[in-house]
Amino acid sequence: MYNSELDTFLAVAAAGSFSKAAKKLYISTPAVVQQMNLLENRLNVQLFVRNTHTYSSRN
Questions:
Q1: Per-residue pLDDT of the chain (59 residues; tens, 9 = 90+)
Q2: Do residues 42 and 50 touch, judged by C-beta distance below 8 A?
Q3: Under a CB-based contact definition with an 8 Å cutoff, are residues 28 and 48 in contact?
Q4: C-alpha Rg value of the chain to the nearest Å
């Protein structure tokens, strides 16, 4: 089963930022943020701690 939200999550984790992941995936940064919000809501868990410059994964 293909899930673009999971692919986006993996890209963000590998790239270290939403904007870098967006460039890698050839989509906009707001689209990455939206997909991460959808995935977090679906799983009912916060996957990333966000700030204006970087993120950190939730462990």
A1: 468 999 999 999 999 999 999 999 999 999 999 999 999 999 999 998 877 655 555 54
A2: no
A3: no
A4: 10
